[in-house]
Each structure stands twice: as structure tokens, then as C-alpha cells.
Amino acid sequence: MWSKVIRRIVVIVIVFSPLGAAVLPRYLPAEQQNNLQRDNLIEQYFHLGLQHWEILAFLLLQHGIRLGIRQLKRILSRRGLTRRNNTSDVQDILHAIETELKGSGGIIGYRAMHQRLVNHHNIVIDKETVRTILRIVDPVGVENRSKHRLKRRQYRSKGPNYIWHMDGYDKLKPFGFCIHGCIDGYSRRIVWLVTNNDPDVTAGYFLDAIRSVGGVPRILRADNGTENVHIAAFQRFFRREAVDAFAGEKSFIYGRSVSNQRIEAWWGQLRRGGMDWWITFFKDLRDNGLFCDDNIFHVESIRFCFMFIIQEELNKAAKLWNLHRIRPSTNPESPPRRPDMLYFLPEISNTQNYKTVVTVDDVELVEETCGLQNVQLPCSPEFISLAEIIMRENGLMMPSNANDAKALYIELLDKIKEVEDNL
Predict the structure, then answer these.
(1) pLDDT band at 377 (very low <50, low <70, confident <90, very high)
(2) Residue of 189, 164, 168 whose CA lies nearest to 177
(3) How far is CA 318 from CA 169, 190, 395, in A?
(4) Residue 420 CA to chain centroid, in angstroms?
(5) Please, what is the Cα angle at 261 between 153 and 219, to 5 degrees?
(6) Distance between alpha carbon 146 and the CA centroid of its chain, in Å?
(7) In whole angstroms, what is the distance from residue 358 CA to residue 43 CA?
(8) Terminal CA-to-CA distance of the chain, rounded, Å?
(9) pTM, whole model, 2 decimals?
(10) What band does 193 get if pLDDT is binned at 50, 70 and 90?
(11) What pairing do the DSSP bridges indicate for beta strands 215-216 and 356-357?
């Protein structure tokens, strides 16, 4: 049985299919349609780290719930939701920080670490305490981190969904992972961030984003990469009856990747926010002789073991970015506040939502016409069957972190080598 499976894998022409997950998980109550009660909404927004006035703004503008600040404070107090006098246990804080430092959190600063503690671990703590703890538990990391700044021209976008920027991130491509992302130009909110750039699948991400948003942006900008060909056609189709200056063909703009300012700048944030750790991690695998991109089993195994973990890392990175507070800058066209606030509540910044509403019929027509694929793992069916047999026979589980994924990766390769040696 084993030899037949191995032969099928060796002789097959591998066409790496994409990961099926589309847009970001809907962590924000404003995106969900679960009819939560008022107090439950308040609790969810509180745990996302929003300030009192931000919670009130979301309740009013997204849920039609009008509350005063005193009433909000009473509800929070009744539920025991406080930050100033309710700091988490020291052991819980240290454990969470140590957990983050073992992974991609080892290369981020104290502000980003504070965000991870609040949003990923439900830790109640202030930034200054995080900074102090990091100096104690990770002095070398604090010393090694440095700031890199790049001056750019001033960027202008009128409001949310006026222009989206798409691009691919190739730093993990040598190891089999092609990342594709999209950012709203005005709010700087990440629309999607996924571990594949196949044209059919990126088109699926776009359609899922349309469903989530309820429309398309006035303008969509991307480079000339083949992963964008379907999206360009879809965008122009959905904007075919618009009457503004960017209707139809003009609604999709091709340009050089390095000139796609918003998304190019954000790739630097992604790398500093944890992706650099993964680049080093995979380079170490390669340098230690554990990965070779010419070996079909290595390529299939690394995708099988790490794809979902990296996607989860991207989901967390996008969520943290969308919820972080952008500091004021000298560019009046780049307003401060959280990207989620700027995107969902344009009224607070005296602007408007520029999306073009798309009907469900049009979305379904595009889907039926194109037949977009939706595969859960970018591996051949033969390899997935082989990996599942090995895992079942040896009592192995799918990994939940980088070290577990590495252990599974090595175990799969060892078992496959045993089968090859017995052929």
C-alpha cells in the first residue's frame, strides 16, 4: 500500500492549489450578524481594547444603540470590566510574554507586545509595565531592536473604500508560501491577508471581501502580476454602471509594485511584526539540511505542516493592526485613530464610505461563470492521503505552533524515507 502511494506522489505533476480560507475572521461585532444583546456587544468591544468613546461610537453608528458615558461605565462596572484597577496576575502576564517571545513575538517592540497581550491573551496591563517586563526578561532582544524609517511622499485617499491596494509578499516564497494582501487606502485597514496568490483563489478572496463589505471600492490598484487578472475583470464588471470618473475600465489601475505605496509600506510592518521570525525559522531549516526546495516531499510536507499556522499568524497580525491606534502625523490626509474606527465609522472623520454597492445576483453570476476553486490545503490529494495515513498509524496530531509543526515535518519525512528505503 505504501509503495503505491509513494509512486503516485513521485510521478504526479504537482499543481499547488491554494488555501481555501478567504477574508479575515470576523472578530469585530460590527461585521457579525449574530444579534448580540447590548451588554454582550459592549463586553466584546471592551475586550478588543477600545476606549469608552470608541465603544459608544460603534454602538451608535453600527448598531443604532444610543448610550451615555455614565451608563456605559455602569454596565462595564456591573460586569467587572475595568482596566486601571484590575491588572492581570503577574504569573499570567509573564507566561503570556514568554509564550510570545518563543515565537514571532521575539522581534516586536513593547507596543506591539502590549497589543498581543490584550487581544490574544485577554491580559489587562499598561504599556509601560510591558516595556519594563521586556527589559527584564528579554534584555538582549530589547537591545537588538532598532527603528528604520523611510520618508515617502504624502498619500491621499478621500475615505474608506475609495481605493484598495493589493500586492503579494514574496519573502516566504522560497519555502513554498506566497502571501497576498489587500489594504484600504484611507483607513489602512487590512481587507484580506492570505497564504496564496493563485489567480483563481485571490479572486475568491475578493468576492468574499465584497460580501463582507457589501460592495467594491471605487478604485482597485495592483501590479501586473498574474494573480490579479481575474480581480481586475471582476472590479471593472461590478463598476460598469458607475457614473464617476473611475467607472468601468478606469476602476482598476495597474502599476509597479514598488509604487503601490500603502501595501508596500505595510509589508514592512508585517515583517517587523513577526514575519521576520518566520523567515529566519525557515532559513534555519534549510541551512540545517532539513529543507530543499528541489525535493517534492520537503515542499509538500512543509506546506502540509505549516500552512494553517502561518495563516493563523497572518490573521492575528491583521487583527492587531486593524485594532491598533495610529498616531497623528504631519500628513493631514492620513488621519489618526484605529483602522477599524476609520473604516467602519467614517462619520467621525467627516468623510463618507465610497463603496459601490454590488448585488448578490452579480456576485453569484461571477461565481457561476468562473467556477473558482476552494481547496483547504495546497498539497496534492495523494500527499494528503499519505500524510493522513502516517499520522493515523503513529498517533500524530496536526500542530498548533511552530515547534510542533517542525516536529511533525521531520517525522513525516522520516517515515516517508523508511518507505522509500523498503521499495
Answers:
(1) low
(2) 168
(3) 14, 6, 34
(4) 38
(5) 110
(6) 24
(7) 32
(8) 11
(9) 0.76
(10) very high
(11) antiparallel
